[in-house]
């Protein structure tokens, strides 16, 4: 299974549903950019965008919610260790209050993975960040040696189609 996303203004992105009415797009608005996201086959419906292989999938993406995307550049030689770490820890999040969905997205081009989590609210996400489980999973304060660059985070609010 694959995931695809692109950026643009929300008005422009929502026109994608007119062009491709059978594709279940998810729209998100963030402080710096808006995103259209969908999962399915390898075929892309975006002229400019990013495509990923879904390595780990938990839950179903909801039409409402708070999305956090951690963008983590990983060196080629570090990919197996990085992916294995997430596969081992995948069950630590799904029982958290307010959790909706999780995806570990491996880039088809480039080296930046996306760790996608969806919550019912920003408050639920913050509660998870302050939990013992989060602290246990993130005990490494120093970035691992396999990081190619500094990770960064984008947050979004889901937008329902009108």
TrEMBL record:
InterPro entries: ABM_dom, Dimeric_a/b-barrel, Heme-degrading_MO. Keywords: Monooxygenase, Oxidoreductase. The keyword Oxidoreductase applies. One of its GO terms (molecular function) is monooxygenase activity. Residues 66-156 form the ABM domain. Gene3D superfamilies: 3.30.70.100. It comes from the Bacteria. The keyword Oxidoreductase applies. It holds the Pfam family ABM. This is Heme-degrading monooxygenase HmoB. It comes from Ornithinibacillus halotolerans.
